[in-house]
């Protein structure tokens, strides 16, 4: 790494972290003013407010705005270099514009890898603590899925629960049917279904009646406290608001497969989330290219002009991302395309700006 590379790399990283730190400070101040009444009303301990909610929220806020502030950081310090004719001096010394972009790409890849790790592995862990705090002191994240719940847990297996309590982990009027084609082979019935903490898919039914059909032969077994494993989880019987926030990439992928196997509703939202976790780091690199190409030319209006155009482009990207996400969730667009179309559009814009950049 040459001195000029180290200079640009440090400028990029330093400006980025300073900008994101100021943003987090402002966000926390506004959040405190908005939620302090809730904390006081629900007697939230100060230590948990600071650690479980605000400190655990920092990675989330960083990753939420990471591509936006990487872009603004590039525009800001590159505009200052252009205003001081530093870029003219660099290019006049024989360094090509493409070589000039190398430290930008090094810094952008560093931030993109951080975003990839944050979004797929770190934030799901911190979200477990943050969401638990929110569920206790701010808002109920678990919601009833209603009554008369029908869940397909296998190819020919169906579960019915009349009503399920998420807070007490039990359901009323339970039945579990197994079919061979259209022919009923067995049916388990119970007045009460309890979730057993031995395993995530372990259940205890009491009292129980098991009806088994084998051709013309039919048997009925009745008793108390029958423990069994089945492909049914408590979250299949109640809704947890945005529970994908607590899943790392591999857990989210496996959860989507399980939802598709059961024919569950709302799978599109999970798919969009998974693809956006991969497309967001790429956006850091694409927006860095746009920012460097846009602000490397000295123009009348200086930093203010570049920042104005840059912020407009950044918010246009966010708008495109939200529109494509809405189309994907409604089923009008595939989750993969919805997550990557904004990157593709702005990559084309970046290539155009790079061609117009000073050489």
Essential attributes:
359 residues; alpha+beta; 2 domains; eight-stranded antiparallel β-sheet; 10 helices
Helices and strands, with pairings:
Layout: H1 3-41, H2 46-64, H3 66-83, H4 86-92, H5 97-100, H6 102-137, E1 142-144, E2 147-154, E3 157-165, E4 170-180, E5 183-196, E6 202-205, E7 208-214, E8 217-223, E9 226-229, E10 238-240, H7 249-262, H8 267-295, H9 302-329, H10 335-356
Antiparallel strand pairs: 1-10, 2-3, 3-4, 4-5, 5-6, 5-7, 6-9, 7-8
Work out the number of β strands. 10
Measured by DSSP, the beta-strand proportion falls in: 15-25%
Q: Specify the number of helices.
A: 10
Quick check: average pLDDT?
88
Cα-atom Rg, whole angstroms? 27 Å
Shape: elongated
SSE series: HHHHHHEEEEEEEEEEHHHH
Count of spatially separate domains? 2
Helical coverage, percent range: 55-70%
Q: Main beta sheet, described?
A: 8 strands, antiparallel
Structural class: alpha+beta
Low-confidence stretches: none
Q: Span between N and C termini? A: 21 Å
Verbal overview:
It is a single chain. The radius of gyration is 27 Å and the shape is elongated. It folds into 2 domains: 226 residues, no CATH class; 97 residues, no CATH class. β7 and β8 form a beta hairpin. Strands 2, 3, 4, 5, 6, 7, 8 and 9 form an 8-stranded antiparallel β-sheet that branches. A two-stranded antiparallel ribbon has the order 1-10. The mean pLDDT is 88. It is 60% helix and 19% strand. The chain has 359 residues and is α+β, with helices and mostly antiparallel strands. The protein is built from 10 helices and 10 strands.
